[in-house]
Amino acid sequence: MPSPSIYTVAQRAGVSIATVSRVLRDSGPVAATTRERVLAAAAELSWSPNRLAAGLAARVHGAAGIVFPDLAGPYFSQVVLGFEEQAVADDRSALILATHGRLNADEMVLDLAARVDGLVVMDRTVTDEVVRCLEGRGSPVVLLARPAVGATPAVRAESLDAATRITAHLIALGHTRLAFLGDPEAAPDVDDRWRGFLLAHLEAGLPAPGKPVRSGFVQDEGYAAGTALLDDAARPTAVVCANDEAALGVYAAARDLGLRIPDDVAVTGWDDIPAARAVTPPLATVRQPMRELGRQAGALLSARIAGVPADSLTLPTEIVLRASCGPPANSRTPTNRIPTPTRRLEP
Amino acid sequence: MPSPSIYTVAQRAGVSIATVSRVLRDSGPVAATTRERVLAAAAELSWSPNRLAAGLAARVHGAAGIVFPDLAGPYFSQVVLGFEEQAVADDRSALILATHGRLNADEMVLDLAARVDGLVVMDRTVTDEVVRCLEGRGSPVVLLARPAVGATPAVRAESLDAATRITAHLIALGHTRLAFLGDPEAAPDVDDRWRGFLLAHLEAGLPAPGKPVRSGFVQDEGYAAGTALLDDAARPTAVVCANDEAALGVYAAARDLGLRIPDDVAVTGWDDIPAARAVTPPLATVRQPMRELGRQAGALLSARIAGVPADSLTLPTEIVLRASCGPPANSRTPTNRIPTPTRRLEP
DNA sequence: GCGCTCGGTGTAAGCCCTTACATAGCAGTG
DNA sequence: CACTGCTATGTAAGGGCTTACACCGAGCGC
């Protein structure tokens, strides 16, 4: 038995397919009794309209996609979840695409674009070139955690200023040998954090720090980089990490080297993942509104899909000072927060 | 200018639309020179076939979906990522749907089913009823981390045995007052863990333990539950947690209550998330192949979509003993692993 | 030379909807 | 009572692709 179609339902309800469509989409007037009959017929056949056909006719996909490098750690998960929430709120399905190492990322993204009404593109997953190509083909794009491209808006969390200030805080505590752990080339946000780190040195009149100690976003890489960095008599007294998970790797490295945090080495992270509060000492970090980033990107995308031009947006971050960056180890609930203001980028 | 269609391309290449389709789908014979011309025409117009139309004609969505409760923590992220990998490998897009608290989950899942070729359904997101309904409508389903339903197969990680053994390990260390932290009603897997916990008591001839201390999967809930549990003179000497994040919440609770792990209280988790190795002392836990769960579910789904009947599958877990569960605190690299065998459920 | 097989191509019939436009009935006007 | 203005419904034209089937010419065995 072939699955029922709008024709089957129309026949059973004794109306035309146009009326069935009207009932379902609630477009155009339908008599109450007719509506009942149609609904009943649809229920009896347990029919639901074929999305493919509906989309084809209406020229709409009813779906939005998000492209991200990986789903490693809370940051990406939360962003994706925020995006999904917004998509559902806008009555769209959410498609995901992780590029990881995949070399044909461009191709995959282009392919994905053919099945959605718009796309959120994170980080360095694809080149600006591809973004322009997408827009050229009529796919609205919103960038996330990377700079705007032409008329394509970007949603970001403030990084530069927060990085400057958390570094300045460490310097104010007396640290003079600081290291940055992370890879500025891995993501635009990390580059901002690195530049803030540099800026704080400049502003404090300190000599320029050493090059970044390259590390990815995962704990294992933080452990490896942290071990290399700290297993040295000339080790820094403070390590500013590009994200919390790498910082947790440094925690493990310090523990395995017999170093105490913050007495022997101060550590800061970025993101404020839950584990940051579970470790001892609690990890000082910069909180960014991960879920909100995804949600806002989704909302901007919806606007663009609707034809409304959208401006770029920078969400505020919040410095969260905790015991890992130097306050006496005996302080019990070190959660002072210094908010930074929201700001909108000029178009 | 309307976007190009297969007709535009055919015209430009001087062939019929059938030939264009053949070139693109590589179905049927096409002369090499003709192929070139078509490809060139498509490139010049930067045309790519409309997926909606293609899907409609071929009666295929080229997409698979996964339904999960939330994306909180590494477990769900990794599972989803594994699923995405498999989907891409099978040349399908991945759709996600988080049900969170949303009360109309059933409806949303049914809606999602209308836009994919098959669905992976995790945990208690929807009832068995809905699963049957989906299958009834011709949507293949694979269950994940929940029991099979009729002919719908399930992919799971072994829980009962591992829970029995890690509890037995604690008992062997001399613990007699153990508590289980987690909500057996929250997820079938947690229920298995709870039953394993009970079983170990039985086997050891210990009196039945108290009821589970209810807690969700997130750290904050673990903290709250842990605080309530430990802030009591009659506190247990060991806490078996339903997952690592809740266990990390217990870590924070213990710290805030001035209790030492494992001297004052032993703690175990579940999942073996990266942070389990970063905390001090390292967290003993049960590793489950999170990514692999998602991948296998995706693979089974592909099989079912292809019309191949698929059997349920249980993946092995691995007990990872670390300092949190009792070995002297000075032991440095406590990573003994006790593997459990893979097994297949009989159909 | 003759029918045959077969590679290469075109024709046209769907796939299942949405929606502009046409039609019909009916209550309310002047 | 003809006419207007609705509301309720039907008709039919797509939307952009896949694919069964028909067709045509060329190489081939005999």
What does this structure look like?
2 copies of one chain form a homodimer. With 347 residues, chain A is an alpha/beta fold. Chain A folds into 3 domains: 6-58, 434 Repressor (Amino-terminal Domain) (Orthogonal Bundle); 63-156 and 291-315, Response regulator (Rossmann fold, 3-Layer(aba) Sandwich); 160-289 and 318-339, Rossmann fold, CATH 3.40.50. The first copy, chain A, is built from 13 helices and 12 strands. The first copy, chain A, has helices at 6-13, 17-25, 32-44, 51-58, 73-89, 105-113, 128-136, 160-172, 188-204, 219-230, 244-257, 275-278, 290-305; strands spanning 63-68, 93-98, 118-122, 141-144, 154-157, 178-181, 238-241, 266-268, 285-287, 313-315, 318-321, 336-339. In chain A, helix 11 (244-257) links the parallel strand 7 (238-241) and strand 8. In chain A, helix 5 packs parallel to helix 13. Chains A and B meet through helix 4, helix 5, strand 2, helix 6 and helix 11 of A and helix 4, helix 5, strand 2, helix 6 and helix 11 of B. Strand 2 of chain A pairs antiparallel with strand 2 (93-98) of chain B. The first copy, chain A, binds a DNA duplex (30 and 30 nucleotides) through helix 2 and helix 4.
Task: Provide keyphrases for this structure.
homodimer, 347 residues, alpha/beta, 434 Repressor (Amino-terminal Domain), Rossmann fold, 6-stranded parallel sheet, 3-stranded parallel sheet, elongated, disordered C terminus, DNA-binding
